[in-house]
Amino acid sequence: MKTGQRVRLRAASPIARRDANARDAVGTVICAYKVRARIGSPERVDVKFASNTVMWGVAANEFEPIEDSSQVA
Questions:
Q1: CA torsion sign, 46 to 47 to 53 to 55?
Q2: 7-65: per-residue pLDDT in tens?
Q3: How far apart are CA 59 and CA 46, in angstroms?
Q4: Three-point CA angle 15, 18, 23, nearest 5°
Q5: Which end of the chain has fewer CB atoms < 10 Å from its terminal CB, N or C?
């Protein structure tokens, strides 16, 4: 994932299953990184949503990119 990329939670994500509102939310990646202290740790992202909510340090594989505006709900 890249900074500035538009994303939404994957339907299979535990976060999306826990929070129905988060499932359809579209956000923007504000930072993508790896935590070096943990060997084999997945890429992490910080994502900001339109509601000014930020998800900090979530595994990047919890999100799917939105390729174009026709896919935004």
A1: negative
A2: 999 988 888 888 877 778 899 999 999 887 767 778 999 999 988 889 999 999 999 99
A3: 9
A4: 60
A5: C
Extended beta strands in 2-70, E state: 6-9, 26-33, 44-49, 54-59, 63-65
- Side chain identity at residue 72, one-letter code: V
pLDDT of residue 62: 94
> For the whole model, what pTM was predicted?
0.79
CB-CB contact of 35 with 44 (8 Å) = yes
Its sign, for the CA torsion 36, 3, 26, 68, is negative
What's the confidence (pLDDT) of residue 27? 94
Going by C-beta distance under 8 Å and a sequence separation of 6 or more, which residues neighbour residue 37?
none
User: Is residue 60 within 8 Å of 42, Cβ to Cβ?
Assistant: yes
Structure tokens of 73? 């709900």
